[in-house]
Amino acid sequence: MGANILVVDDKPENITVLRDLLKGEGFTVRPALSGEIAVRAARKQVPDLILLDIMMPGLDGYGVCRALKSHSETQEVPILFLSALDRVQDKVRGFEAGAVDYISKPFQAEEVLARIHTHLELRSVQRQLKEQNQQLVKAAQLQEDVDRIMRHDLKGPLTTIIGFAEILHQKAGLEGEHLEYAQILLDSSFRMLDMVNASFDLMKMERGSYRFNPKPVDLNELLIRLMKEYQALANPLGIQLEIKACEGCQNGEVNCLALGDEFLCYSLFSNLLKNAIEASPPGGLVLIEVRVGSQIQVSLRNEGEVPGIIRERFFEKYSTVGKQHGTGLGTYSALLMAKTQGGDIHLDTGEPDFTTVLVVLPIAERLSKLHLNASLGVRNLSEGDPANGEEVEFDSVLLVDDDEGTRLYLSKHLPNFVKQVGHANNGISAFERFQEADWPLVVMDINMPLSNGHEAAEKMRAWERSHRPDKEPAYILGLSASVDDDVIQQSLESGYDAILSKPIKGKDFLNRVNRLLTGGLLSPSPDPIAVTKDLEEILPRTRETWLKTITEIEMALKEGDRERVRELTHRLKGSLKMYGYYQAGEIAGRLEKGANLIAETTLFSGLQQLNRIIKGSQVTFIEPNS
Description:
Elements: E1 4-8, H1 12-23, E2 28-32, H2 35-44, E3 49-52, H3 61-69, E4 79-83, H4 88-97, E5 101-104, H5 109-171, H6 176-207, E6 215-218, H7 219-229, H8 231-234, E7 240-244, E8 257-260, H9 262-279, E9 285-292, E10 295-303, H10 308-311, H11 330-340, E11 344-348, E12 354-362, H12 369-375, E13 396-400, H13 404-412, E14 420-424, H14 427-436, E15 441-445, H15 453-467, E16 475-480, H16 485-494, E17 498-501, H17 506-519, E18 529-532, H18 539-558, H19 562-578, H20 582-593, H21 600-616, E19 619-622
């Protein structure tokens, strides 16, 4: 059976002529003698194409067209106007209403048939493309789901492997070759972790879906750290590694900052430095030079030329030559990482017997070290020494993970003052244990069988509100192999306070738990604040305004006006960051995001943190251009 065509005209004789013409071509013809009938008929059974007259009593052709284009089921049906109105403005009006073509009356049969066949073919192609796009979207989503599962399934055992390899290396009293074996096991575990992370991030960068949040990155410090790490690879070959910092970075007073992502910068230069060492002849020199202009330029120069056969494809995927175990992904991933950060990479083979790779990255303002610490935002609570000398109020932790090895590893890295450790292997048992005792801290995996962490966190928060409304809520620290914006958002909505990415280093976990149990979300001494001297006079009044705003937020929260909470925390976030209170600004930002989502007790806890920072932070005033 041919295409289904709806013919709309208030004159029966016109419909008869078109019906006879179209039936001769094998089309199925449905007549409609008014605009109102046409709209009902099209919505009841969607046609493949519509021939539509304009001048009709009641609902005219323009009205019919607009009505059908506003309905999801009929908006893609091609509409051809067939009308005696042939002025330019009439045709323009028809196209503006949504028509795909315009045929003037009296019409030629051959013209009508030719245009109908053309638009039916276009419609068929559009349907095929739509179906293909839907299949591609489903395939991409499936691939992402598989990758997400793979990351979780791989990172779970990796947490255990890395954790116990670390314990063997540091605490088992191994010596000689056994200590060397433990180090090899630890290094191999971290290389596997890097491969898991890199594969997922590269996929996102290729698709353009990588969430890039640029921050100042000290390239001099990063490159020096990389050179120390790769010294072990260079020494057996007698290869010398040398770095020439930019002229403005003398004595460490001013830092050379790129506007980028520290993880991407580390991976980018790690790949390039490893390539340069492997390509150098024994006894050669690998020179890294940093220059600062309108952008930051980092050149890596090594002895030895890139083979001519590969120069044109140097940055292409899987392009490699002469390496027994080379994957051809090193330079390709480096290029992706540079472009993701708004930069680029170039190969320079103009100097005989040498190869130079030039990396260009956007520049961040040059700041003093004190100002740099503030500009980097919230301090990573997993870094630094745990709080000392504080009276410990809590001494119990609930560990929830379906992997017994992970729970055992985490329990080995709890602070000494923790006397009670609870265990649960899924969300259901976690909620049961949660009701049995007063757990100030819950460390809970997100992806678990039977009932996942999100479901358990929601139950815990609901139970707290109904059974312990006057008590400080538990702090729920999440564990996840995949930490992206969607995971963080869903976790905030379900009741988590923060997320740690698996696998977790024992020292980082110990320091984080130490701080949470002794000083809450913040260490007892908040980060130092760097404020320019031109703001010194007005800062006291501004602080009073912040404290009043916090009081307003508390009142709005008590009244249940969550939208007002969101507005005030948004305003507070911007003001705090403008004055250099980056840690407090980040907390206000998290409260803004969760204003309509997270529990009231969690919001109040965050406001208390802001109070402590604003009242207790040590402020240092610096010159505006320092």
